[in-house]
């Protein structure tokens, strides 16, 4: 078996022996243990506790109510208050109370009650020990019965007398003693007079020695002490004590008032104290005078060491210099090791500061200027430190300088703090500058957003970016390209900066950003990554392409380039992406608006403008023609026999004919001309800046083109589609659009009456 196992076995044996000894002690002393659980109300008793109440061990499980009933009535309230106090304060309490045993006999119990506290600091139960004190209580009763026999003697004594238990309880005293301590008989009966409360702490040890002698059946000699009076003052007394029972539990004390004797003694002591004080003062003065120099020197050393500073003394006659120990330590030298002159001191200074220090010292000596400066010095281990130096020049009666005495303070830490503070301030200034820059950028972005919301065309939106975005990207050229739906290429809408380093028109395949669907930046030295649309003749140092994407659709490209190094830092690139997102969203909204306007102004069948747009546009063209003095032609067209086509071929065929004619007209008129579906099978064409003759020629051209059309429907070719034309002109036939349309419509009617498939020009003399 290992030593550890042997030790463990021995410990277990010792624990078992201790348990057995504890059980014997409880049995012999009749000391019972108990525990009470507050939550469940359960009470647990040891075998000795059952015996205290005259019961067989574990005869039954006691309850709290049963326990209360065993306590004699006059002690029940006290018992309950003590238990409540332990629960409320958590502090241990003791109590003595009388009980009625199981055999109806009376017994006395002393109990110690303590709180059971859980992990949360809450009292959840009580536990303690109980002991049978019936014999002691019977003795006390017997003692009180014999008291009457000695009362007269007790009360007639010229000295103070009192009776007390070994626990310090004073249960009787004569009037003389009560007068000494200032208490009344009633206060004594209330238990307010107690040995411990009367005795100052410095007499506790002596009292314990007296009690020990009594327990050894010795009779102590009277001794002097003091008692507290009720008002807190003290009274000197001479005390004699003796036991009055065999068990040594109770004592009688005789007390003699020593106030007068104490006054005399105090006066003697005061005289002795004054003599001793005078003698001590004389000795102190001698010590102070002999030690003042050493103390001052020690204080100065401590002060210098605490302040990390030292002093020096320069002899101007010998140029020798003396350092204090604290200065030697500050300079990295061992105390008492420095033995040099000013030249050696100068060699310890930083080369850049050496001349400044020596010049300042010279000016202070010869010109009587203040010597106050900061310099760097190098310690023997190579460490660079900072020192602040101040000095004064000592002169003789003829003002001749003799010595320079100075103080050096290590300010390295302060300098480090200043340097750190400077760095922090610099960082704060940089951050403040960045915040100001971000704020300015946010204001510009806000302005861009405001302008974009007010734009009506894509061109306007791109112009806003070109005008307002330049401050966001200094030293950069830029441009905006819009993807053309007709030829699938990107066309430049606007640009800023010079020279502009991109082609004006290119395909999406020429741009890495459009290929990859994300921004593409090229840094200086990465020329191989430039997009194909970057102009070789004006090759920049760096570039950035950002696709204009909204709702998953690529709308164009924002292009930035620079000839001055890096294109943009990351935060600026993010800003460029924000601008691109705003522009893309604005373009998408504008295109959506254009589509909606187009749908509201177009006839869905023929794709020609509708009558509402015709009336607005004709009024605009007539006003423009009036300002610029040119004519405007108006053609009224009607499909011949259109009802017959509908009746014979169906309405779908009629729709096909109207749609085909609409397509033909759009493909054979100028971009400035406006073709509109006037109603039913009637179509109106506005010809700005066209004379009546030019309008007639255009009408004849279109009539022939319609007659030559071959329209396929349901696998068949529809032939013989013709149209009749009526021609009128501003200002020949009127000043308003309504007048001119009426005249053109009258000419159309004449063409129908003349046999259809012909052009009739309204005569100039005709008017409404």
TrEMBL record:
Its main location: membrane. Keywords: Cell inner membrane, Cell membrane, Coiled coil, Membrane, Nucleotide-binding, Repeat, Transferase, Transmembrane, Transmembrane helix. One of its GO terms (molecular function) is nucleotide binding. Residues 146-188, 296-368 form the PAS domain. Residues 414-445 form a coiled coil. GO terms for cellular component: plasma membrane. It is found in: Cell inner membrane. Residues 93-145, 371-423 form the PAC domain. GO terms for biological process: cell adhesion involved in single-species biofilm formation; negative regulation of bacterial-type flagellum-dependent cell motility. The keyword Transferase applies. Pfam families: GAF, GGDEF, PAS_3, PAS_9. The keyword Cell inner membrane applies. Residues 630-764 form the GGDEF domain. InterPro entries: Diguanylate_Cyclase, GAF, GAF-like_dom_sf, GGDEF_dom, Nucleotide_cyclase, PAC, PAS, PAS-assoc_C. This is Slr0302 protein. It comes from Synechocystis sp. (strain ATCC 27184 / PCC 6803 / Kazusa). The lineage of its organism: Bacteria, Bacillati, Cyanobacteriota, Cyanophyceae, Synechococcales.
């Amino acid at each position: 078996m290992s030593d550890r196992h042997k030790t463990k076995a021995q410990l277990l044996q010792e624990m078992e022996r201790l348990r057995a000894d504890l059980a014997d002690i409880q049995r012999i002393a009749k000391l019972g243990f108990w525990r009470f659980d507050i939550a469940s109300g359960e009470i647990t008793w040891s075998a000795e506790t059952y015996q205290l109440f005259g019961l067989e061990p574990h005869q039954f499980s006691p309850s709290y109510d049963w326990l209360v009933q065993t306590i004699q009535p006059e002690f029940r309230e006290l018992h309950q208050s003590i238990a409540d106090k332990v629960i409320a304060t958590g502090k241990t309490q003791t109590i003595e109370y009388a009980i009625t045993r199981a055999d109806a006999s009376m017994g006395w119990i002393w109990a110690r009650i303590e709180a059971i506290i859980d992990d949360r600091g809450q009292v959840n139960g009580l536990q303690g020990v109980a002991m049978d004190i019936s014999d002691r209580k019977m003795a006390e009763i017997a003692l009180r019965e014999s008291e009457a026999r000695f009362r007269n003697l007790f009360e007639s004594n010229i000295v103070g007398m009192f009776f007390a238990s070994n626990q310090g309880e004073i249960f009787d005293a004569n009037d003389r003693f009560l007068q000494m301590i200032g208490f009344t008989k009633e206060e004594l009966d209330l238990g307010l007079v107690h040995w411990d409360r009367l005795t100052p702490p410095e007499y506790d040890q002596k009292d314990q020695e007296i009690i020990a002698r009594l327990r050894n059946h010795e009779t102590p000699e009277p001794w002097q002490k003091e008692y507290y009076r009720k008002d807190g003052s003290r009274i000197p007394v001479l005390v004699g004590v003796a036991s009055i029972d065999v068990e040594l539990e109770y004592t009688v004390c005789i007390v003699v008032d020593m106030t007068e004797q104490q006054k005399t003694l105090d006066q003697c002591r005061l005289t002795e104290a004054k003599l001793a004080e005078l003698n001590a003062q004389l000795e102190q003065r001698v010590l102070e005078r002999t030690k003042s120099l050493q103390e001052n020197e020690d204080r100065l050393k401590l002060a210098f060491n605490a302040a990390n500073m030292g002093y020096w003394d320069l002899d101007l006659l010998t140029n020798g210099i003396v350092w204090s120990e604290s200065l030697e330590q500050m300079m990295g030298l061992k105390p008492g090791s420095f033995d040099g002159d000013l030249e050696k001191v100068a060699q310890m200074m930083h080369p850049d500061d050496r001349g400044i220090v020596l010049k300042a010292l010279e000016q202070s000596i010869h010109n009587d200027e203040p010597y106050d400066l900061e310099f760097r010095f190098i310690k023997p281990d190579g460490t660079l430190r900072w020192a602040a130096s101040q000095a004064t020049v000592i002169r003789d009666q003829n003002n001749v300088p003799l010595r320079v005495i100075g103080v050096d303070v290590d300010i390295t830490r302060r300098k480090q703090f200043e340097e750190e503070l400077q760095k922090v301030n610099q960082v704060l200034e940089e951050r403040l500058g960045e915040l100001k820059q971000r704020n300015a950028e946010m204001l510009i972005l806000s302005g861009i957003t405001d302008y974009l919301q007010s734009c009506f065309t894509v061109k306007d939106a791109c112009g806003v970016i070109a005008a307002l975005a330049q401050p966001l990207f200094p030293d950069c050229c830029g441009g905006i390209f819009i993807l053309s739906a007709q030829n699938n290429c990107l066309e430049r809408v606007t640009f800023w900066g010079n020279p502009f380093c991109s082609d004006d028109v290119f395909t999406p395949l020429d741009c890495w950003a459009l290929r990859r669907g994300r921004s593409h930046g090229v840094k200086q030295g990465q020329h191989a990554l430039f997009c194909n649309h970057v102009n070789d003749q004006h090759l920049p140092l760096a570039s950035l392409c950002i696709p204009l994407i909204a709702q998953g659709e690529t709308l164009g490209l924002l292009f930035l380039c620079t000839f001055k190094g890096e294109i943009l830092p990351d935060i600026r690139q993010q800003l460029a992406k924000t601008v691109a997102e705003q522009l893309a969203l604005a373009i998408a909204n504008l295109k959506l608006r254009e589509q909606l306007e187009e749908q509201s102004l177009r006839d869905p069948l023929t794709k020609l403008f509708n009558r509402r747009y015709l009336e607005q546009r004709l009024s605009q063209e007539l006003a423009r023609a009036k300002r610029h003095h040119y004519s405007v032609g108006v053609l009224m067209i009607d499909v011949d026999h259109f009802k017959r086509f509908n009746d014979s071929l169906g309405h779908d065929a009629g729709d096909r004919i109207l749609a085909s004619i609409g397509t033909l007209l759009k493909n054979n008129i100028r971009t400035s001309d406006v073709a509109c579906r006037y109603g039913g099978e009637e179509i109106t064409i506005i010809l700005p800046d066209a004379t009546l003759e030019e309008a007639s020629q255009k009408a004849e051209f279109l009539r022939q083109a319609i007659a030559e059309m071959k329209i396929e429907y349901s696998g068949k070719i529809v032939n013989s589609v013709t149209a009749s034309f009526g021609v009128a002109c501003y200002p020949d036939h009127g000043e308003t659009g309504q007048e001119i349309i009426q005249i053109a419509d009258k000419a159309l009617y004449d063409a129908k009456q003349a046999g259809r498939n012909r052009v009739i020009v309204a005569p100039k003399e005709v008017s409404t």
